[in-house]
What does this fold into?
Amino acid sequence: MTDQPQFDRERHGGLFDRGSADAYYRRAFSPHWYPQGTGRGEAVINLTSEEIEEYRKGFQYQESTGEFKY
It folds into this structure.
């Protein structure tokens, strides 16, 4: 994986984080990330296929846990 911030799985607002959060809150699959952290600034939505895949991994990981906010 690249060393770009959107791929840092420990980063709040990164691709994996946003994918897992969307699944946890039962939101639709909608790839995005926040360069300045979740809810700060503008979300980046024009993503590469590699970025969409990282978001997907977060989304699928959360779904696999069976833990969701109801």
Helices lie at 15-24, 49-65. The chain is about 40% helix and 0% strand. The mean pLDDT is 96. The radius of gyration is 11 Å.
